[in-house]
Design goal:
mainly alpha
């Protein structure tokens, strides 16, 4: 049978529409998932695609989850709030997406809400008991909640489940340090650095522990290695300034602080959070260095900035009192 021209035209149009129609939603989701998990240079395109998918299927839990991942990868505080909203929608639609509890916990820790992080991790562990990733991050949440002994216990459980899990060993090092077990903390952090675990963070924690242990030379070497990996991170420069100060190398310490001056823009490209804590550490170290160099007015100004941020800060209070005493003693008749 010969087909008429109108029917041939209709079939051609239908074939063309089939060839150019969007891929099925699940296929599009899997493509975006693969890109999000392997690269970050297509975040804008991934977000656009996920919004198009959600316009077609607002109840796609996977799409909400992936949009949350994209927003959290971008890293700004505002988008972290958007990410939390997307993750919440994903869990409302599919409570079995246990990994979303882990993503939420990370965000809550970044935002300084360790209690909320702990609640998410406990909910995740209820579904996957003994999961080393959840246990390790729960240990960090407990540490941030000022429960270092509990943090040590939980991170050791994570390492029992997976002895090679470097993040758990890193969190254990931090917990041991906070629990006052400095030498044990150094041992754990040295293992992480040798294994090249969470690299810049581990170098920073190890360098800080070396300073606390009076091992300034080891601290300087460790922190310089860290800065070769992450040269713009303010917290690394501040820690190196402290190491130089502890060794009496005050000019080098001052030079590091010139590189360390934190701004919100610089912190957006680093792992340092929150901004206020880094700013406080900067001004405190500046006050201590200036006081040792005899630059008392500059030291007093730095300590006052610390106290503006945290009025009951003990080290800044002591530093300012000492500087004011020295300033009074320098005035005519001040020593009488």
């Amino acid at each position: 049978m010969q087909l008429g021209l109108p029917l041939l035209i209709c079939l051609a149009v239908a074939a063309s529409q089939t060839a150019t129609s969007p891929a099925p939603i699940q296929e599009r989701i899997e493509r975006v998932r693969a890109e999000l998990y392997s690269r970050t240079d297509r975040l804008s395109e991934n977000v656009k695609e996920l919004k198009q998918i959600l316009a077609l299927d607002p109840r796609s839990a996977d799409a909400h989850m992936l949009l949350g991942i994209a927003y959290s990868t971008w890293g700004s505080k505002e988008l972290k709030g958007e990410a939390i909203g997307e993750f919440r929608q994903a869990l409302d639609l599919n409570p079995r997406l246990v990994q979303v509890h882990f993503f939420l916990a990370h965000l809550y820790l970044d935002l300084g809400r360790a209690d909320r992080a702990r609640a998410e991790l406990q909910a995740g562990l209820a579904q996957t008991p003994g999961n080393p990733e959840f246990l390790a991050l729960l240990g960090e949440a407990e540490r941030q909640l000022k429960n270092p002994q509990r943090a040590v216990e939980v991170t050791r459980q994570a390492l029992q489940a997976d002895p090679s899990f470097a993040p758990a060993r890193y969190y254990l090092g931090l917990a041991l340090r906070d629990a006052g077990q400095r030498d044990a903390a150094i041992t754990e952090l040295e293992q992480v650095v040798r294994a090249r675990g969470p690299v810049a963070d581990a170098y920073l924690a190890l360098g800080t522990a070396y300073v606390d242990a009076g091992r300034a030379a080891d601290a300087i070497d460790t922190l310089n290695q860290a800065l070769r990996l992450d040269p713009v991170r303010p917290a690394l420069h501040i820690a190196l300034a402290r190491a130089y100060r502890s060794k009496g190398l005050l000019e080098k310490a001052d030079a590091q602080l010139l590189l360390a001056k934190p701004t919100r823009a610089s912190l957006s490209d680093s792992s340092d959070y929150p901004y206020q804590q880094v700013e406080l550490d900067f001004h405190l170290e500046r006050g201590l260095i200036k006081a040792q160099r005899g630059q008392l007015a500059a030291a007093a100004d730095a300590f006052k900035k610390v106290l503006d941020l945290e009025p009951n800060h003990e080290a800044a209070t002591r530093g300012l009192a000492d500087v004011n005493r020295r300033l009074r003693a320098k005035k005519p008749g001040g020593g009488r």
